[in-house]
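Task: sequence design from structure.
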């Protein structure tokens, strides 16, 4: 059975630009990579803000078409609500997009590949988010 892994936006961006570090490339080798609706939105925003050429936008579209897309649904929304409420109760504030990405991973039961571990450590410690190893 193939292993799926969700790419955080930082890892997705590096993968798209063929700039992954050797350890991350090794970690992703042989796995099916997924991106969330959040990462798709963030990468699209970058293309817009940087006035990418049609050729570069087409490259992004092609790269995204090769990923499994994790969308928004009721389960993800409820998971996001629980994560956000729990963080607020603990006096913690998490970035909204990081919370959505964590919610997608938790709702689907998939590990997350990230280079920004500090952004997700709260979700790991308190909610069982699994980071890809």
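Answer:
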């Amino acid at each position: 059975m193939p292993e799926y892994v969700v790419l955080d936006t930082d890892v997705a961006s590096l993968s798209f630009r063929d700039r992954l570090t050797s350890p991350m490339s090794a970690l992703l080798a042989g796995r099916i990579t997924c991106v969330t609706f959040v990462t798709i939105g963030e990468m699209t925003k970058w293309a817009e803000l940087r006035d990418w050429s049609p050729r570069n936008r087409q490259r992004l579209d092609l790269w995204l078409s090769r990923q499994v897309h994790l969308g928004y649904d009721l389960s993800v929304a409820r998971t996001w609500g629980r994560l956000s409420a729990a963080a607020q109760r603990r006096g913690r504030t998490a970035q909204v997009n990081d919370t959505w990405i964590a919610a997608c991973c938790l709702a689907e039961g998939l590990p997350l590949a990230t280079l920004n571990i500090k952004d997700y450590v709260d979700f790991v410690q308190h909610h069982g988010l699994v980071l890809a190893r």
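Residues 74-89 form the longest helix (16 residues).
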